[in-house]
Design goal:
- This protein is mainly beta.
- The chain has no helices and nine strands.
- It is globular and about 40 Å long.
- The termini are far apart.
Length: 116
């Protein structure tokens, strides 16, 4: 992932995007409130190709929550701005996210963890 920022999940049920740029390191770029405590985060760049063979890529911040919900949010790789959050209920257990290499790129995979 070629971004100058990273995401941090906090116990106050928020995710913060912070800068990793040497000129303003650790400066907060954006914040997203969550419905529950974040269990894991995974930032991935996903590409697509349209009918004219033009390829583009979009950064996604995937957030696994402690209540079994997966959030996928579009993340601007330059500004760190978060938008267009999609929600998917996966079950009652916490969602752990992992980056798995596939076809030379990383893809997010989820796993439920916790009791019963």
């Amino acid at each position: 992932v070629s971004t100058q920022s990273t995401g941090v999940g906090l116990a106050d049920e928020t995710v913060r995007i912070i800068s990793l740029d040497t000129s303003d390191c650790l400066t907060p770029l954006s914040t997203q409130a969550l419905p529950a405590r974040p269990e894991s985060l995974c930032i991935v760049e996903m590409g697509q190709q349209d009918e004219s063979w033009t390829s583009s890529s979009t950064m996604f911040l995937n957030i696994g929550l402690s209540i079994g919900v997966l959030l996928r949010t579009v993340m601007d790789s330059v500004t760190g701005e978060l938008s267009d959050t999609r929600t998917r209920y996966l079950g009652t257990r916490a969602v752990k996210l992992f980056r798995i290499p596939m076809h030379g790129r990383c893809s997010p995979r989820h796993l439920h963890v916790g009791p019963g």
